[in-house]
Amino acid sequence: MHEDFERCVRAVQAKDGRFDGWFFTAVLTTRIYCRASCPVVPPKPENMTFYPSAAAAQEAGFRACKRCRPDASPGSPQWNERADLVARAMRLIADGVVDTEGVSGLAARLGYSVRQVERHVRAELGAGPLSLARAQRAQTARLLIETTGLSMIDVALAAGFGSVRTFNDTVREVFALSPTELRARVHTAPATAPGTLNLRLPYRKPLFPDNLFGHLVATGVPGVEEWRDGAYRRTLRLPHGPAVVALKPEDGHIGCRLTLSDLRDLSTAISRCRRLLDLDADPVAVDEALAADRLLGPLVAAAPGRRVPRTVDGDEFAVRAVLGQQVSTAAARTHAARLVLAHGEPVDDPDGGLTHVFPDALALAEIDPESLAMPQSRKRTLLGLVAELNDGGLDLGAGSDWQRARERLHALPGFGPWTVESIAMRSLGDPDAFLPTDLGVKVAAKGLGLGPAAFAAHAERWRPWRAYAVQHLWATGDHPINRLPAA
Fold first, then answer.
1. Which domain holds residue 60?
2. Does this model's pTM top 0.90?
3. Which of 39, 245, 400, 454 could disulfide-link 395, Cβ–Cβ 3.0 to 4.6 Å?
């Protein structure tokens, strides 16, 4: 979009927040870059130029605006809508892969050479993977500077900088302030326990939180997830240790309270929480497409801004999807809770009732099949999935190839369309994943006057947003997944 000059100028002059993250406005006279909705008086069009990413603007020598904080704007919805190389790379960069494994590790995960990844990413984003990761480190550093009392040395290390000098230079270059000056702008930092941060996760309006949080809570695994004091809380498995997060819907943002074992995991934790709640979606584009349908139109008008509840761990949800085959929600939660108690990693949660991190595939490889209270066929399905995850042939992470993952899942015993598409929707994040065989979806379709054959044909009109259409169809039923839990 950044190449459509006239459209970008109109968005900036209208201060249209829908385009935050789609492009960044750089002002040639001040050498500052902003988000589209920056509250200052818009510059003259002849003084504007546009970049596809904050990293590209920084690489061109522009500094982040102190008013609108463009580095903290919602991410481009393209990276969650697409499954091509650049979109997969951007999801992995947000997940911290470049910081932990380097560009070579990123390329290896994508199955391409470093040169190919560099070329494709730079062509579309205006900056290479290292610059994009650097911009993310700068944003992490600012959060730590403004929300904690950590020493600047600790902030530099936690944000992923290799040296304090690099940290100081980057902060000055990106924000036109030294780290000390940046902290001095914050009058009072909230008092929190060590390792705990209170953050705001922005999103594009509108957002309808009922099904988003209702689904997560209604299907939550005891000990891993809970609803407490108006917030959805859960444990996270992160590269440097476990964490606990509390997410609360607020006006214009999601309140996020993170308790980390290691502050180096901050940017990864934020990325996974945003992915869980689908916060980088473009609800206006989704709603406009679905509202044009005569059957879905009234449902969209009644609840604009529905998101698709996703997951913080693709492997975890795949295991839970198998446990939920042909059983009730309550039974699926019971099966999952037993696995957690037997194989999960214990955590300390003084603020609530969370007890474990959901076991990873390596821990689940130690399962005794006789300890599973389920039919033999489902035991084989679960053990087959765990073996495939441990062999490395099945990637359900942020940078996965959606089509390849579907093919690998279909090849496993016991994996039918419902299980595969559920995983595609929640683990892979495919916005077009569809569940025509789901009981709730079939009941909703019948209520709309569509028989099985007519439904399949009609649903083609909802591409590429069928995962969002499913949320609207589920909402026609009376189920806790459709309601925001009581505070």
1. 5-72
2. yes
3. 400
